[in-house]
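Journal club prep — side note

Before the paper discussion, L.F. wants everyone to see what a predicted structure for a comparable chain looks like in token form. Sequence:
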Amino acid sequence: MTARPLLGAIAVVVHEGHVLLARRVKEPDAGLWGFPGGHVELGETALAAAARELLEETGVTAQPVAYLTNIDVILPGPDGATAVHYLLAAVLCRYEAGVPSPDDDVSDAAWIPVETVLSGDLPMSAQVDDVVTLATDRLGSGPERDRTGTKAPGLA
């Protein structure tokens, strides 16, 4: 069998000036904050996988809206050759409901102020700040405004 990149999806949820991040338990990036996400199952779209993984890892539901970008994560093995190659589809999602609560592959899940993410003061996976910038730009003039008049539970 020929080694191939593995497809994953990450959920990018920006709401009321905050972004929903999760602290990874497993490698790669154990202990770092990043977007909830995981493997895309056979026959599943990356949009659907992002929403499913978001719910599994944080208990938050969100509607996938659009693809933002793709991220290559290429990890070398002990011999220097590529051991693992992930292609992550970053999916912009609109918050619907739920209080962030860690489950599955994360030790923590929380609404983090966009400014904190962009300042680099948080131990994060590579490119999290770049993807947050893409998301806020896509949403227009900064973080998404709550259009329902309700505040997301658990928002710091």
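L.F.'s comment for the group: The longest strand covers residues 61-76. Keep this in mind when we get to the figures.
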